[in-house]
Amino acid sequence: PSNWIDAIFEDKRAAVADQVAAKMDVSAWFATLTRRMRQIAKDLAFGFSTAEVAKKHGVTSGRISQLRRTLEASWLAFQQETTPALA
């Protein structure tokens, strides 16, 4: 869907300014990814399992796990961070 990024951020507990900033950041980061990596990231963001994403993209679950780490590193670099934030 054309409004997929809105669906990722449908939790309205965050302040509007924070929601807008997050949407802008994710949109800008997604623009740096290949089409395939954007689709994989989107599938993972929507909560599809590693196995489901692997089957959809014709790769192994192990490969999706590797790509998930690659995506995380890419996001952290985009955000100019060196380590993931702790919950």
In quaternary terms, these chains amount to single chain
Helix content: 55-70%
Individual helix count: 5
β-strand percent reads under 5%
Count the E strands: 0
Structural class: mainly alpha
The main pleated sheet reads as: none
Radius of gyration over all CA atoms, rounded: 14 Å
> Low-confidence runs (pLDDT<50, min 5 residues)?
none
Broad shape: globular
- Average pLDDT over all residues: 82
Describe the overall structure.
This protein is mostly helical and 87 residues long. It has helices spanning 4-8, 16-30, 35-45, 50-57, 61-78. It is globular and about 40 Å long. It starts with a helix and ends in a 9-residue tail after the last helix.
Comma- or semicolon-separated keywords:
66% helix, 87 residues, mainly alpha
What is the topological layout?
Elements: H1 4-8, H2 16-30, H3 35-45, H4 50-57, H5 61-78
Helix pairs in contact: 3-5, 4-5
Outline of the structure:
The chain is an all-alpha fold. The chain is built from 5 helices and no strands.
